[in-house]
Amino acid sequence: MAEQPRSQTSRDLETFRRWVAETPVGGMVFFGGAGVSTESGIPDFRSSDGLFVQKYPCPPEQMVSRSFFDARPREFFDFYCERMIALDARPNQAHRKLAELERAGACAAVVTQNIDGLHQEAGSKNVFELHGSALRNYCRKCRAPYTVEQLLALRAEAADGVPRCPACGGIVKPDVVLYEEPLDEAVLQGALVAIQQADLLVVAGTSLAVYPAAGLIDYFTGNRLVIINRTPAPRDRQADLCIAADVGVAFDF
């Protein structure tokens, strides 16, 4: 989809907001990606900003893979803690509006590929975190839970920069789905059912390039599919409405 003229985008936004208002109670499901949180100051780690070439030894997808975590944990945590933890980030307009729509009974569920916990911080309750959460961590050996603040403190205390459980010495791993790891089956199934039951599915801030998460859209059989993304996406041709705008702008109503 080519970049839309402002007038066309304005009409599309009006149509989108009207569809939200017309959707039956509990009929809307939101499926979001990194573009939902960029307006909160969290960069898409795939963005080409030169940092990876300058500072890191491998492409980001490799550095957040399970094999890299196992083989080179110190370098994993160097990248992960600098690029994928954003404790200062706060919910933006999209997060807040989705929580409001849930409270009003319109939005049945949020399905997110993000790991920042901003949907819950904004007030959304029924959130399916496909890739886990950076706010949760656990010892791989004894399964003791740790907050993200505790993870960072343990890393700072470790001579090799690898956080370890004080109780048993096991490495503390973020509760996020790394490349080469499967999605949590219960979370995946919950997201699938929510999408199957949706009347209006809003896909925003994602190019739908990462599988198996991106394949969930194939289970949608409802009436209206809306895609909100600043750049064209492969699934645009399936959508009833494509909006070339920031996610926060689309949800500013």
UniProtKB/TrEMBL annotation:
Q: Which SUPFAM superfamilies match?
A: DHS-like NAD/FAD-binding domain (SSF52467)
Please state every residue range assigned to the domain named Deacetylase sirtuin-type.
6-253
Please name the PROSITE patterns in this protein's record.
Answer: SIRTUIN
List ligand-binding residues for Zn(2+). 139, 142, 165, 168
Keywords (alphabetical) are: Metal-binding, NAD, Transferase, Zinc
Q: What's the superkingdom here? A: Bacteria
| Enzyme category, top tier | transferase
Active site location: 131 (proton acceptor)
Please list the GO terms describing molecular function: histone deacetylase activity, NAD-dependent; metal ion binding; NAD+ binding
Cross-referenced InterPro entries, in alphabetical order? DHS-like_NAD/FAD-binding_dom, NAD-dep_sirtuin_deacylases, Sirtuin, Sirtuin_cat_small_dom_sf, Ssirtuin_cat_dom
Documented EC number(s): 2.3.1.286
Instruction: List the protein's name.
Output: protein acetyllysine N-acetyltransferase
